[in-house]
Amino acid sequence: ANENTSDAGVSNAQSTEVHKWKLVTSWPKNFPGLGSAPERFADYVNEMSAGRLQVTVYGAGELVPGFEVFNAVSSGSAQMGHSGAYYWKGKIPAAPIFSAIPFGMNVTEMNAWLHYGGGMKLWQELYQPFGVVPFAGGSTGVQMAGWFKKEINTLNDLQGLKMRIPGLGGEVLKKVGGLPLTLTGGEIFTSLQTGAIDATEWVGPYNDQTFGLHKVAEYYYTSGWHEPGTLLEFIVNEKALKGLPKDLQKIVEVATRAINQDMLDEYTSENHKAMTQLVDEHSVKLRTLPDDVISALKTATNEVIAEKRAENAAFDKIYAEYDDFYQGVRQYHAKSERAYYLNR
Amino acid sequence: MYLCHNVRTSVVLVFIFYMLLFKNVIVYINRTLGVFVSYATMIMAVLMFSVVLLRYGFNLGWIGLQESITYLHAAVFLLGAAFTFQHDGHVRVDVFYRRFSVRKRAIVDFFGALLFMLPVSIYLFVVCYGYVVESWQLLEGSREPGGLPFVYILKSFLLIFAGSMALQAITELLNQGNKIFDKQLVSS
Amino acid sequence: MEWLSLLLFFAVCGALLLGYPVALTLAGVSLMFAGIGALFGVFDTSYLLTIPSRLFGIISNTTLIAVPLFVLMGVILERAKIAEDLLTSMSAVLGRYRTGLGVSVILVGMLLAASTGIVGATVVTMGLMSLPTMLKRGYSPSLAAGTICATGTLGQIIPPSIALVLLGDVLSSAYQKAQLDMGIFSPDSVSVGDLFVGALMPGLLLVVMYLLYLWAVSRFSPDQVPKEGQSNEHTSIWPLLGALIPPLVLIVCVLGSILLGYATPTEAASVGAVGALILAAIKKTLTLSTFKYVTTETTKVTSMVFLILIGASLFSLVFRGFGGEDLLKSIFTSLPGGLFTAMLLVMFVIFLLGFILDFIEITFVVVPIVAPILIVMGADPIWLGIMIAVNLQTSFLTPPFGFALFYLRGVASDIVKTEQIYKGVIPFIIIQLILLIIIAIVPSIVTWLPNIVYG
Ligand code: NA
Ligand code: NA
């Protein structure tokens, strides 16, 4: 009925329609790793759809503040978002399970649980009332425990320690006597420099070096007990997604899957180089947390999780399935991955 | 003819009476809000100072205490906005305005209220409504460990802000319309 | 339809001249444009749905809590005549100069700027404290207003500064990206701390230039300053010290608590407010009516500042919705070759944008686009950051959207006309531009201190 029918292989006029999407993120524009993932996603989608789905990426604060990404996608003011599920804790208490649980699953295990262990279905159910569809959106891998101005030798050194650490990790730190704070990226450096905080966690060597945290704190602790394989998320407005032709919907899904792997590859490739630089060139003192501190943190984690399960039915249900999968996969990984790491 | 005029006059008078009553109620509400949040500024300073003292004196800290300061802060500038308007505390570029006659100023303020203040307030109210209602339905809490579980109340300030500004805009229309009208009477 | 964003600019500028409150004019005209644009299908109304999130972002920005606290401190100091005494004493100490009070305003303002870091709070505080006194002493209204506005903008460049924090945040990503573009895969970093250290010398240099300007005025245009010095007012130094020490202790507490790491700027603001309260109580000027006046004033000034922020947020949103951002992008990406030309053009455009946008929008919209390009061309990131910061400082002084002007207008009594404020800031805008040229020619003013501190 119109000029579009002349396109080879296109059966209806609608499918040449151009869709323009806004993608809001919780990261500064172009921020290495976290911020480059949504940019790459936009490129992939644009190319794969031959320009029929054009995605514009907005950094934190450009269209909406970083912590408002979920609301923006839910209300439809942006069709898509890239962020981390633990930021929606106040709204959806169970959401942090889909980004990081202290001493929980690593990234390989998380991805397995989501895509083959039933986790994704639970995640979709959790966001369904908000008209939001989640996809795994990449991972930083194991993060670092953070930057400290003084050494942590005993549990006592955590008493009154003012540390920037958001999410469940913060609640765990609070249980063992610390003072957790959530600061946005831009506030961290000065707060640590001026001593308003004594310690901070951020991401890992690749991002931490960008922030120059080695200039204001001497001790770098490994590893990230609180964020063992932090998963990020792509979230899509359900109506916007369903409003796309089937092929574009598939393109969105597959592109998120590609980025999910791509981000981890970038971090794996860059983290070790940055770590070498930090230790060799900037004389950062790399430390591990003492055993008694780790075991106290583990006990506190169990208490925090028990409290969360008692408080919230969705948390209880999802964590039960998470833990079920975790207990199984860690048995096997103890015999495979861990055994191999010890051998090589 | 005389009777008809008289009825019309009394209808107008009754209307004016109710509008004045309505106007006075709005003025009273917004002034009360303003006085209420004024004390909040002092409480904010004392609470924040306590946060510093507790941290350095006793190594104590509560996120909830810090968040309560954010709540007070939001109350001050959102709930105090209409009150500030009553006192003409919002800045103008008054290069020309200050040279205008009383009537000309009234015209600017009348059309400002009609075309800017009222539509903006109504738009803000409408667009924030769903946002706030959802927060109430979830009884949204803080994302911070130990934070206050009253984010829905904090967000409600947005609606009170938009609502009080809309009401203030209506009293502005009445006030400034009256001034324009008065001036006409005087000059004719 | 990108030209509509420019039309929006001009419409807002025109509407502002009518004299309706700035915040509501910004918001109202923008909303009208959005509505008309939507009717004709050239504006995506989903942009308007982001406003609740943006407002909540303003609410939950803890840094901004410093505003009411510093305003409270300023109003108390003003009401208790403490700051006036400080200014008087300092100008008495500097009494052998005819511009003693002006110098004191700049120095006290510098201390305030250093401790608050917030342009609005500094202008409001200094405006409340010193404008009436300066006029009483015989300064020309435009010189007094210009000095106060310009001094207020020092908070932008003298650390700790919120503008530098935002800028540092954006620049570190831009620097990283630039290095990746250049094929450097183990990039060096630039941080907020680097910018703080880098800004120190230019900030102090600017203070010196303000002082030189005052001296020049007294020399070449003597009717703008008082006829005589006031060295004969005080014969003994002890009363002066008595007046000087309490407020100085207060300012040192505020500054010191930040610099020594006892408090964030917001917390330090509460130290300032409570300290001012204590000083007022000691001076026995703290009555119930003072208390009421102080809290009401603080509420009004705070609401005024934040309503402008809210209006500006709606304006920048609609501007973006009409593709204004794309328009800016296309201007900046078609830059001609050579760092000098590119830098000149960027600085010129940022200066022009400063007339209509505020520093937050420029920092978030323009810097991420131009900074990577300029760094790849060879610009030092810290130097670039300070150049942008000094340039953005002028945006606070340039009409019609000069926030320092609004703030002073908001607290100035009727004896100062808006035109006098505009006229008064022009020399200071020129001084800031001269500083910009000096930094451009001698970049080591910025870079030598970071090099010493961080090796
Ligand atoms: Na400052
Ligand atoms: Na300006």
Automatic annotation (TrEMBL), chain C:
TRAP C4-dicarboxylate transport system permease DctM subunit domain location: 13-445
Listed Pfam families: DctM
Keywords per UniProt: Cell inner membrane, Cell membrane, Membrane, Transmembrane, Transmembrane helix, Transport
GO molecular function: transmembrane transporter activity
Membrane disposition: Multi-pass membrane protein
Coiled-coil segments: none
InterPro entries: DctM, TRAP_DctM
Family classification: Belongs to the TRAP transporter large permease family.
Assembly and oligomerization: The complex comprises the extracytoplasmic solute receptor protein and the two transmembrane proteins.
Annotated protein name in UniProt: TRAP transporter large permease protein
Record function comment: Part of the tripartite ATP-independent periplasmic (TRAP) transport system.
Residue intervals passing through the bilayer: 29-49, 56-77, 105-131, 195-216, 237-262, 268-286, 298-319, 339-357, 364-390, 396-412, 424-449
Origin: domain of life: Bacteria
Gene Ontology CC annotations of this record: plasma membrane
Subcellular location: Cell inner membrane
